[in-house]
Amino acid sequence: MVARDFPDLSRLLSPRSVAILGASERPRSVGSDTLLNLAEHSDFDGQIFPVNPGRERVHGLRAYSAMSALPGPVDVAVVCLPADAVVGALRDCAAAGTGFAVVFTSGFGETGDEGRAVEAEMAEIARQSGMRIYGPNSPGLSNINRRLGLTFSPVFKNDTLGGGIGLVTQGGGLGRAFIQASERGIGVGLWCSTGNEADLTMADVVYHMVGDPDIKVIALLAEGFRDGPRFLAAARAAARAGKPVVAMKVGKSDYGVAATRSHTAALAGSAAVTSALFRQHGIVEVEDLDELIDTVALFERVGIAPRRGICVYSFSGGTAALAADMVGSAGLILSELAPGTRAGLRALAPSYAAVDNPVDLTTQVFTQDKLNRDCLSLVARDPATDVVLLPIPADYGPITDRSADDMVALAPDSPALLLPVWMSGHRAAGYATLNAAGLAPFRSLGKAVTALKRLIWRGDWSPSGTSTLALPAFPPGELDEAAAKAVLADLGLTVPEGRVVTSARQAGEAARGIGFPVVLKALVPGLLHKTEAGAVAVGLMDEQALAAAWGAMMTSLSAQGHRLERALVERMEQGPGVEVMAGLHRDPVFGPVVSFGLGGVMVEALSDVTHRAAPFGRDEALAMIDEIRGRALLGPLRGRPGADLGALADLLVILAALGARGDIAEMDLNPVRAGPAGATVLDAVILRAPTEIEGKARQ
Amino acid sequence: MVARDFPDLSRLLSPRSVAILGASERPRSVGSDTLLNLAEHSDFDGQIFPVNPGRERVHGLRAYSAMSALPGPVDVAVVCLPADAVVGALRDCAAAGTGFAVVFTSGFGETGDEGRAVEAEMAEIARQSGMRIYGPNSPGLSNINRRLGLTFSPVFKNDTLGGGIGLVTQGGGLGRAFIQASERGIGVGLWCSTGNEADLTMADVVYHMVGDPDIKVIALLAEGFRDGPRFLAAARAAARAGKPVVAMKVGKSDYGVAATRSHTAALAGSAAVTSALFRQHGIVEVEDLDELIDTVALFERVGIAPRRGICVYSFSGGTAALAADMVGSAGLILSELAPGTRAGLRALAPSYAAVDNPVDLTTQVFTQDKLNRDCLSLVARDPATDVVLLPIPADYGPITDRSADDMVALAPDSPALLLPVWMSGHRAAGYATLNAAGLAPFRSLGKAVTALKRLIWRGDWSPSGTSTLALPAFPPGELDEAAAKAVLADLGLTVPEGRVVTSARQAGEAARGIGFPVVLKALVPGLLHKTEAGAVAVGLMDEQALAAAWGAMMTSLSAQGHRLERALVERMEQGPGVEVMAGLHRDPVFGPVVSFGLGGVMVEALSDVTHRAAPFGRDEALAMIDEIRGRALLGPLRGRPGADLGALADLLVILAALGARGDIAEMDLNPVRAGPAGATVLDAVILRAPTEIEGKARQ
C-alpha cells in the first residue's frame, strides 16, 4: 500500500474557506454553534460562507441561498441539515467543486439497512466527484494546534491546550473525555471523529497524522474498522515513521458489538483477531479510556524507547513493596542498583531506610532540606535504571509537595525517566506542580505499571519481514480430505502416508503396504462431523480390526443416509507430539488471517488461539507460536524433547502466503501433530474462495 | 474456632487511660505528635500519662518518671522509644498491669533474624502477662468514629469524616491514601495498622470489626498473614455476620514477597493459595488500592445483595457502547428492559435515542427540563434492572451537572442501585454533588464494572458446609506407590487393579491375571523421578513386551545404582478420560490446603490449579472443579461424555478430611484419570507428617 491510496487531508484540517449548510442563529442549534465555533472561538482567518436560503445574514456574516450561489469552490462544506436533506446537499456541494464535506447529521447506517443504503449513495457521490466526505453522524474535528474546529460542540472554546497527541475517534463523548485531560497538561493537538465513515475512515486520518510533524503519538478509540486492510497499511506507515499508535477497541463482547453497530454502524470484528493484529503491527492496545489517556501521554513524553530497568522509589515502605510487587507481577524487571548508587544512598539516607530497589527512604528523608532531592538524583543517574517509578500514596502536605518539587527539578536532566504516581484523591499542590511541569502523574499504581509494560513492549517491538513463496497452484474441483492432503504435500507440508481405497479389500492391501497400526477415514461428500458420524476409526492394529472397522463404518454411514464408497487409509502417527491447529480464513474486517493454537479438543476447551494478518514471515510465525498460553506444552518439558517449532513456523508461513494469494476461503488444519522432528497434518479441510463468476452465480 | 480465641479489643480501641512512654515536646517527634494527637486533636476525655524520666511536665500535662510511678494500671501504653529500650519498657508496662501496649518503634523483624528474636520475646511477655501488644513497627490506630487516635501521624487531625468502613493495614502509607478518600465522602470509621504483629494480628482486628456495630464493611490491605488459620476463622465470623470483607494482598511476585518481608516482616505465602482461600471464605479480592477504595465504598453503600440485572444509561452513544461492552466482557448481564419501560422511554426521549439497554438518550435529553430525570426514573424502576450504570464520559458543564442532580434526587427512592462513573479529569460541580450525596462516583469505567462484578460475586457467594468423614487410619511405615495406592483404595478411591511382583516371572503371572495391556512400575526406595529414570513402562501389550520391559528396566536402574527388586504390575487404563491432579499440602501460612487442576504435563505447562483450605464439603469441591481454566476439558465436549465430576468431588473431600486430620505432610495424586464413570488414581505419592517425636528428633 502506498501513499497515493490515502488522500491529502490538509484542505480538510486547515481549510481556507468553509461553507456552513444550515447555518442558523437559533440558540444551541448545530448550525449556530458550528458557525460560532469557527467565527468567534477559533483562529480561523479564512472565508466563512453561511448557506441558508431563508436569511440574508447569519451571525453578522453574509448568507448564501445555496452552494451554487457561492463565489467559488470552498475547501470544506459543513452539512448541518436534517437527514433527508443531506444527500441532496452533498450533490450540490460536489457540483460546486467542494473539496471536503463534513456531515454531522445522524440517522443513517446506525439505524439499519435503509440508512446503510444512503451511506452507499454518499460514497458513490464521493467516488464520482472526487469530493471526499467526512461522516455522517460525526461530531466533527478539532485542529487544536491551529485553534480551528469544524464542530458544533459547545465546549470547543475550552480546547486551548494543543500538543503532540493526535486523537482519532468515531463518536464524540469518549473523545471529549480525552480532551479534558488538558487539565493535567495532556494536550491533544488534532482530534478527528469520523462517525459512520461513509467515505473517509479512521485509516485516512491515522495516515495523515503519521505525516503531520506536530503529532508525536496517535491515540485511537475505535468502535470498528470500515476498511481493515487500509487501516493496517496506515499502521505500517506509523511503524515506519517511528510514531507510536495506542488504541482502544470497543466491541469485545456481544453486547459491545451490538451497541457499536447501533452507534456508528461499525462492524466490530473479532476482538481476538483485532488484538492479535494490533500486536503484529506494533499497535499498543489498552483496555479503558483512562489507560488510553495515560499511556498516550507517556508515549508523547518518552517516544519509542526500550526502558527496561525500573527502580521503585518511595517514602512509604508498603507502597514501595506494592509497587515492586506489581512490577514483578507484570513480568517487568527491577534494576539492580550499582554499588555506587547504594553506597551513596546509604551515606545520605536515614539509617533504617531501604536502599535496595525498591528504595524506601521513609518520610524522614524530608526532615533535611535537599536530602530527598540528592537521593533521587543518585537513583536517576543509576546506570541500570531506565525508569524511576515514584508512587506517592497519600497527600502528606509539605512532604509530598516537596517530593513533587524535587521531581520537577530533576526531570529535565534526569537520564532515567521519572514516573510519578499520585495515588491519593487529594489534589494537593504537589499534584498540580507535577501536572504543570508536564509530568502528569498516573493516578493508579497498577495502571502506571501496565502503561510502563506497554511502553517497554513497544520499545522492544519491531516490524517483521514478509516472506514471498512461489507456491504450486491448486488442482480444480472440490477438495476432500485426501485431495486436501495431496495439496498440502505438494506445498511441502507433511501428511501421514495414506492411500485412497474403494473397498475393504483395497483397504487391507493399502494397510499392509503402509504398515499397521492404521487409521481409516471415510471420504463422503458433504459429511462434516466425521468423528461424530462414525466415519473415522483410529488405532487399527491388524487386518481383522480394519475389516471390522470398515463394516461398522458402512453400517453407521448407511444409517445416516450416506454410502461408504471411498475411504482414506493412513499410517497411525505415534510417538511424542502435541496436537496443535493452524488455520486460514478471510476475516470480514481484516481480510486473510492465519490462526494458530492448541489443537484437537483443546481449541474449543481452552480457546488458546492467536492470529496474524497474512502474509507474514518466519519471525512473525515464531512470535505467534510463542504467544499462545499453552506454549509450554510444546516443550521441552519433563525431559520430553520440544516440538519442532521451525517446522510449525514454516507451515504457518505457507498458510500466510496462501492467504495473500486469495484463492482459499478457509483452511483448517486440525489437529496438526507437532513432534520433535516435524509437524504432521492429521486432518485438513480446505474451502476454495468462490471465483468471481461463482460468486456472482451464488448471489 | 470460637470467640474466646479472639481478645476483646475495646480497651485498646476506646481506652479511658493512656500512658505515653517517651512523651516529648521536641517538634515533629513521635513522642510529641502522639501526645498532641491524643490531647488536642481528639475527643479523648480519659486520662493521659506522659512517661518521661527527665521531665516534670510534657505539653502541660504532669509527666511520670516510669510506668511504676503511675497511680494505677492504664488501658493502653504507647511506646515511643528507641528500639533498644522497647523490650524493657514492655516488661515495665506488663508489670504495671497495662491492658495493651502499642509499639510504634521499627527496627525489629523487618531487619532480620535478630529482630525476629526480639519479637518472639515480646510475644512471650504478652503470653505470660496477659498484656496484649500491638506492633511493633506500627503507625498506630485511629478510631475515627470516636475521634480518637493512638498515632503519631501529623495529619491525623484531618481525619474527621468517620463512617462504616473498618480499615486494616500493616503499614501506614497505603492506609493513609485510603483515609484520604474522605474527600469523596468515603469514610473510614476505624483504622488499625498492625505493623509487625509480634502479638496481636490482623485477624484480631478483623474479628473485632465483625462485632463492631458501627462497621459495615471491612477493608483489608495485607502484606502477609502471621496466623493464617485464625485469619480464616475471623473471615468465617464475618461471613456469618453478613459483613463483607474486601482485601488487597501484596506479595504476588518474588519482588513483592521480598519487599514485604523487609517492610513488616510478613510471610507473604503463595498468591494463588491466598486468592483461592479468599474465594472459599467469601473475601472479595481486589488488585489495586483504588479498587480497594471504590469496592469497599460500594459495599458500604449497598451491603451484600445479588444485583445481577445491569442497565447502562448514558447520553453518549460511544460511552454507552463501551460500558455495555465491558459488562459483557466481565460476564455480567444487561437487563432486558420491560416493554413498559421501553415504551415509556420511547414516549419521552428524543426520536433517535436508543431506548434498549444500553440506553443512549443523547445530550438532547437535557434540552427539556426534567426529561432526563423522568427517563432515569423509568429505568430505575424497571423490574429487570437491579443496577443502573451511569457513565459520564466528560464534563459538559450544565448538562453533566444536571445529570448529577437527577441521580442525587432519584437515588434515595430508587429500587435499582444508581452507580455513576465520572470519567473526566474535570472535577466539575456535578462531581462534587455526587460525592456530597454519598454516591461517590467511580473514576474508571472498567474499574466500576469490575467492582460491580465483585459485588455480584459476593451477593451470590454463600459459605459451604464441611463434611466430616470417618476415615481409616494409615498403616505404619514408608508408603511406596503400591502401599500408597492400597491406602487410597482403603479410603474408597479407585486405583488400577495391580499386584506387587518381585521377578519377571511373577510379573507375567500378574499380567495374565489382570489382563493385557499392562503398566510396569519399579518400586525402588528413594527413587523420585520414575519416568525419567526408566522405571515406568506403559502400554505393554503381551508377555513378550512385559519381559522385555523388565529387562530394560533392570539395565536402566542398575546403570543408576538401583536394583529392580520389586515392581507394580497394573492394568493399563484406557478409554476416554482427562488427566487431572489432586494434592494436599501443609501451607506455611494457612495450614492444610487441597489442590486440584489439570494433570500430567499440563500442571507444569498451564499452571491451571486451584486450592482450598481443608476441611471442606462436596459443594466446595465442585466449586474447585468448576473454577479451573481448563474446566471445559472435563466435558462433555464434542459428543464425548463428560468426566464423572461427582467422583472427583468425592476424592477432593477425602483429601480435605485427611488434611484436617493432620497425619499427612503431602499427598500428590497425579495423574488422576477422570473418566465418565469415575476417577482412577494412576500415580500417588504420600508423605506422612512427622510425628511430634520424629519432628523433634529431626531438629
TrEMBL record, chains A, B:
Which is one GO molecular function term here? ATP binding
Keyword DNA-binding annotated: no
Q: Which InterPro entries match?
A: ATP-grasp, ATP_grasp_subdomain_1, CoA-bd, NAD(P)-bd_dom_sf, Succ_CoA_lig_flav_dom, Succinyl-CoA_synth-like
Q: SMART domains annotated for this entry?
A: CoA_binding
Q: Where is the ATP-grasp domain?
A: 485-522
Q: Does the keyword Cell wall biogenesis/degradation apply?
A: no
- Keywords annotated in UniProt: ATP-binding, Nucleotide-binding, Plasmid, Tricarboxylic acid cycle
Q: Which domain of life is it from?
A: Bacteria
**One Pfam family per UniProt:** Succ_CoA_lig
Question: Which GO terms are recorded in the biological process aspect for this UniProt protein?
Answer: tricarboxylic acid cycle
Cross-referenced PANTHER family: BLL6376 PROTEIN, COA BINDING DOMAIN CONTAINING PROTEIN
Protein name, per record: ATP-grasp domain-containing protein
Origin organism of this chain? Sulfitobacter alexandrii
The organism's taxonomic lineage, starting at the top: Bacteria, Pseudomonadati, Pseudomonadota, Alphaproteobacteria, Rhodobacterales
